Amino acid sequence: MGIDLSVIWFVIIVFATLMYIVMDGFDLGIGILFPFVREAEDRDVMVNSVAPVWDGNETWLVLGGAGLFGAFPLAYAVIIDALTIPLTIMLIGLIFRGVAFEFRFKATPSHRPFWDRAFVGGSIAATFSQGVVVGAVLNGFPVVDRTFAGGPFDWLTPFTLFCGVGLVMAYALLGATWLVMKSENPLQQLMRTLSRSLVVIMLVVIAIISLWTPLAHPAIAARWFSLPNLWYLLPVPVLTVAIAVMLWCSLENPKYHATPFLLTLGLISLGFSGLGISIWPHLIPPNITLWQAAAPAQSQGFMLVGALLIVPIILVYTFWSYYVFRGKVQPGEGYH
């Protein structure tokens, strides 16, 4: 039995996407949480908690996009064509967020509020657009003769907009629990309070999407609720509820600092796995599988050599940067 390069590349792209969601998610979440924090010193602590690592987190987005382009060119072409508007808004948001991230430290006191608003707006726009993209992928794309056959606003549906709001809440929870781990005193207490509210909101969002998706797509309903699939997949919702309960309890106990963030990562990962289960093996739902969208095996094999070299380097760099900048962030300290 030969090696299935398409499956290998699918795993690489899914891994890169998940790494981006959980790692860039919390620093986008910090921008989303900015309006809840008024003290300039606390805002500086929030930004300094991710300042050494935030730009490296987006390496995973580049890896996932480049992998999709090279390994599954049909999927890349269809997704870019179908989602031009939300993807462009996402990129503009990331640009504003990145520029504001650096400029707010250099700005005069009179200009800093502008860059703070740019930081908030860029973070929300990028996150909301990513949620819309996820919802649009779940809805699927019409493809005729290997070309997207829909219109420029097919992505604009109540379901995709709800997914956008849901991802904003998810990233806000990631950001809040990250700050529980990285901050102290009043800021940490505020983040514990916000996190408890966000846990409840997240459970509601997950429940609505879990019902809405199978009701709108009979194939997804059959995937989750037919026997024996129901028994095989039952651990996903059970673990989701169990982790949410543990997360709530860890937020109530002041001795837990890193645990809420780690549990939130588990909650987000389970939600992402649910998405994968729903669409597998279609890379362009509802009809185009990953094998149909794949590049020639020679191209995938050539790219795989490079990926096997670069992915370990990215992992080592990521681990080392987080290790070096571990611990609490104190007011007044930062790399700027």
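(the above was protein one; protein two follows)
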Amino acid sequence: MTKQEALFKYTLRLGDNALILSQRLSEWCSNAPFIEEDLALTNFALDMIGRAQAFLRYAGEIEGKGKMEDMLAYRRSERQYYNNQIAEQPNGDFASTMVRQLFVSAFEMYFFAELQNSKDATIAAISAKTLKEVKYHLAHAEDWVIRLGDGTDESHNRVQKAVNDLWMFTGEQFEMDEVDNLLIAEGIAVDLDSLRPLWNNYVENILKTATAEIPKDEFMQTGSRKGIHTEHLGHLLSEMQYLQRAYPDATW
């Protein structure tokens, strides 16, 4: 694998994580529990679609085949996406969405704090901007997980169920392959092994405050680095890509 090939796949992965989670969060538009939360989740989705646009545009430049960000977002099949599987999981109820956001944003806080020091100037610039947004996303999710987890019996049970259901998707965030190893050696990518203990400690403390327990089952889902996904991504893409598929090359 060449450095160009690795960099293309790495930026594609970063763009896909933001793109798919943005699509999920946008599903809350007009469906959130109250209007302030409706606006908050919609703004999170907009933050992520901006990040996806930046990374996918850069991925297209790296590949050098004339593909713009829209083509990479809407003209690929399911096996050509490399987002972590946690991003594609259905929203479920509000507690489930907040737990998913806690798991993802806690990882992203440490990840982009390191990636902003990348020797790749474009990746570093996008990461520095992203980090500011992620800190707000994390604070928001953390507040809700604690409030719901340490609230009524009903809200507590929903948070615990979300933790139980989503925990097996968290380990994949720290997986590395030849893409990571090549770019780490170049000073471009982040060594994810160094982030795992930081993430574990942070999330464990939040869940303890929320009176929620970490599942004892250590099984973790895997596969996204090879384009393997859960059944949910295909359904998500069928909706997200509908307009482009129905009217290729359409312009406003």
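Reviewer note on protein two: DSSP finds eleven helices and no strands in the chain.
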